[in-house]
Design a protein that fits this description.
Blueprint lengths: L3 E9 L5 E2 L3 H5 L10 H8 L3 E2 L13 H15 L9 E6 L9 H9 L5 E5 L4 H15 L5 E8 L2 H4 L5 H9 L8 H7 L5 E8 L9 E10 L8 E2 L2 E4 L2 E4 L5 H6 L6 E2 L1 H22 L9 E4 L4 H13 L13 H4 L6 H12 L7 E8 L4 E9 L1
Parallel strand pairs: 4-5, 4-6, 13-14
Antiparallel strand pairs: 1-7, 1-8, 2-3, 6-7, 8-15, 9-12, 10-11, 14-15
């Protein structure tokens, strides 16, 4: 198959960065009681700023499709081709604006471009990488010359205090402590908004750096492990009860649509399965860890970074820490967009040398999936 190249990358981060001290002002206080989890979570994740598509009045400034089209418009502006030359739009997100129509359809509607092929990749963090793989495969099989893929999240509206007040009031009425469970409150201090887009082509740039895609591989362990991160459901005995099978009253009383994470499962499996998965893809592609010049792991917290370095080293996957590139602390965890945003900074703001190898590593804890991509500077 022909080589496929990433020729341009652009990002859009809404509004001004939000500091740790501003977070609860923007997201709101649940039932008048400041979060007990906030300080602990922020100390561990070491994120110092993030972006929200929420204005000072607490109202949304952008929806997910609007964030995505802003990134696409910036991508086209920095590219040497007309948007009408693009035949494929592939979009990944965890947080579409609605159940139906698909996210890519809504983005295409805003773009006002031309008839084109669409793909909407669902899931959590790996949805952005799956969107990249679809665009890559379309060009590699001669289905198009140019494709745009995106990763985006607009999660802030899911994290607003008003989404949890009904549950808190129900707990108080039952004379229970009206504190939202840690599995829900934890993620209020972890996630942020943003979008990024990549332009793929069957030809490299003429006068500037491109990234050749050597391979993209995904691995799921859902056959072994129960759900860990989920929304639109409640977990009962390790299984998910979907919102569609629950009473409308329980949707609010149990904050059913909130994003939740089973912290015990996360801590038990995210590192071991990360080690297992990277060993599998390196072995499959006969790639030595020493050959990786830039390692871009998507992590949700620096708490996991130190443990990952230690676990990789113990497993014989020794990638020197000076080759790791992470910008979580200043950008926040933008889910499906995070790997794009990491790569954009490396691609546009760092000095890359021809022949250098870049490895993207994107896990998601939904049911423990991992996607890896090897890129080569050309």
């Amino acid at each position: 198959m022909p080589t496929v190249y990433i020729n341009a990358i652009a990002t859009f981060l809404p509004n001004d960065p939000v500091s740790n001290e501003q977070m609860e002002t923007v997201l709101g206080v649940i039932n008048g009681a400041p979060s007990r989890a906030r300080a602990i979570v922020l100390r561990n994740n070491r994120i110092t700023s993030r972006y929200y598509a929420i204005g000072d009045d607490g109202q949304p400034t952008h929806n997910n499709a609007e964030l995505t089209i802003e990134a696409i418009n910036r991508l086209v502006e920095q590219s040497a081709i007309a948007k009408t030359a693009i035949d494929v739009l592939s979009c990944g997100t965890s947080t579409p604006d609605q159940l139906l129509p698909s996210h890519a359809s809504m983005v295409h509607g805003l773009w006002k471009n031309k008839p084109m092929e669409l793909n909407s990749a669902s899931g959590i963090c790996t949805s952005g990488m799956n969107a990249l793989k679809y665009a890559y495969m379309t060009i590699a099989t001669s289905g198009a010359q140019y494709a745009v893929c995106t990763g985006s999240e607009r999660v802030s509206s899911w994290l607003r205090a008003d989404k949890f007040n009904n549950e808190s009031e129900r707990l108080a009425a039952l004379e229970q402590h009206p504190i939202i469970a840690f599995e829900k409150d934890f993620l209020r201090w972890m996630l942020s908004d943003g979008a990024a887009a990549m332009l793929l082509s069957d030809q490299p740039n003429d006068h500037r750096t491109s990234l050749a895609i050597r391979w993209i591989d995904g691995i799921s362990y859902a056959h072994e492990l129960e759900p860990c991160m989920y929304a639109g459901a409640i977990k009962v005995n390790g299984k998910l009860l979907p919102w569609s099978d629950a009473s409308p009253e329980s949707w609010l009383e149990q904050s059913m649509f909130a994003i939740k994470q089973d912290i015990k499962l996360l801590e038990s499996y995210v590192i071991p399965k990360g080690v297992q998965s990277i060993q599998e893809v390196l072995r499959k592609h006969r790639l030595e860890a020493s050959e990786i010049d830039h390692f871009l792991p998507h992590i949700s917290s620096y708490f996991f970074k130190d443990r990952l370095v230690e676990a990789f080293s113990a497993a014989g996957v020794a990638i020197p820490e000076e080759r790791w590139f992470i910008n979580l602390d200043k950008i926040g965890n933008v889910g499906a967009a995070s790997s794009y945003i990491q790569l954009e900074e490396l691609f546009n703001k760092k000095t890359l040398k021809k022949g250098e190898k870049v490895l993207l590593s994107v896990p998601e804890s939904g049911r423990f999936s991992y996607v890896y991509a090897l890129l080569e500077v050309t």
